[in-house]
Design goal:
The protein is mainly alpha-helical. The protein contains 16 helices and 3 strands. It folds into 2 domains: 216 residues, no CATH class; 54 residues. The two termini are 25 Å apart.
Length: 368
């Protein structure tokens, strides 16, 4: 699948680039109190960032940029500098959710730093983003591309991750509704038939050439559906106690996690120069295995690994739970048969054999 946009640029926008860069710096330890001696000094200017406070101050420019490029209480794919008329744009779910997640990561990195001048600004930006997402949630629990769109898979997964950051009862209820929508709409066949609108966001970026000639650049942003839904479900499963998920919901999430894990692995290139990369839904030459698919897929599989190694989730547990349920159905059927027709060894044996056969076939056909 690829966007039918003619000359659409298949690339990331400025907002997503900023999110990737900030997250990479934070995950790389940029705000650790003491810089690692393994870090290379690549330029003279970098030496000025050797102290924690200097790095905090340096990132104030990023915080100012994030704040100044908001639309209402959210973000769009591109900065206001590339909008022909800012009044014509509204926040988009994907970049807003991704930015809130990056801000939350930022806040965790500066937790306890009472001297950080922009911590309150980041907290306000995060709260505003969460509130905006709650306001655009559909009654069904899903989220669209923006406040005017119908519910879509990728956007609901992004929004669910953000809703799980808050612990107030209202937001947790919104998270459960989003989770239920995802479980209903992300079965294997449904993801395989995902529409272009589910997988891609298309947006315009205004560019002025060197001769100051205005050009409208259409950009296609792809959501790596299997990976981001898997990440969202892993997040939800980790918060299952706080959300008070029912056993039915837990089982549903658990099964979906293993199904999506299989799908993500199925998109991985097994050999050749791109061995290990994950195939996107783009079909333009050179765009089939983009970096963001690798990043999200690795994160998703890492979360599954942690859940399995931590003993929180088990494929065998799902199998035996399913087996027990099927055995109970056979027992009930036998009980009803005896109650209606009385006890007969031969007919009972035939019923038992048929019940076992049906369940074995069912397990084989629905196995993950």
């Amino acid at each position: 699948m690829a966007p039918q946009l003619g000359q659409a640029d298949e690339m990331e926008g400025i907002v997503n680039d900023t999110i990737f860069a900030v997250t990479a710096l934070l995950d790389g330890g940029f705000l650790e109190k003491e810089i690692s001696p393994k870090w290379l000094i690549v330029s003279t200017s970098f030496e000025n960032l050797n102290t924690y406070r200097a790095r905090i101050d340096w990132l104030s420019q990023t915080v100012s940029w994030i704040k100044s490029n908001r639309l209402d209480r959210g973000w769009y794919f591109t900065s206001s500098d590339y909008m022909a008329d800012k009044a014509q744009y509204i926040p988009a779910t994907g970049p807003t959710a991704a930015m809130v997640l990056a801000i939350d990561r930022f806040l965790k990195a500066i937790a306890g730093d009472e001297e950080c001048e922009y911590r309150a600004t980041l907290e306000k930006l995060k709260l505003d983003g969460v509130q905006w997402l709650k306001e655009i949630q559909h009654e069904s629990g899903g989220f669209g591309r923006d406040a005017q769109d119908v519910p879509r898979i990728g956007h609901t997964a992004w929004a669910l991750r953000v809703l799980l950051l808050s612990t107030d009862q209202d937001t947790e209820f919104a998270a459960i509704r989003a989770l239920d929508w995802l479980l209903k709409n992300t079965k294997a066949k449904q993801l395989g038939r995902a529409s272009e609108q589910d997988a891609f966001d298309r947006y315009a970026q205004a560019i002025f050439t060197k001769n100051q000639i205005f050009r409208k650049r259409i950009i296609a942003h792809e959501h790596p559906l299997e990976a981001i839904v898997l990440i969202a479900l892993c997040d939800a499963f980790q918060h299952r106690g706080r959300l008070s998920l029912s056993s039915g919901r837990r089982d549903g999430v658990s099964k979906a996690i293993f199904s999506l894990t299989k799908q993500v692995i199925g998109r991985q290139q097994k050999d050749g120069p791109l061995r290990g990369a994950f195939r996107s839904r783009r079909n333009s030459p050179g765009e089939e295995y983009p970096l963001y698919w690798i990043a999200h897929s690795v994160l998703a599989l890492s979360q599954v690994r942690d859940l399995v190694l931590g003993g929180q989730i088990s494929a065998s547990r799902n199998f035996f739970s399913s087996l027990i349920i099927r055995a109970l159905f056979v027992a009930i059927a036998i009980g009803v048969f005896i109650a209606i027709k009385g006890f007969d060894y031969r007919e009972l044996a035939i019923l038992l054999i048929l019940g076992v056969a049906v369940n074995v076939i069912s397990i084989f056909l629905t196995r993950e």
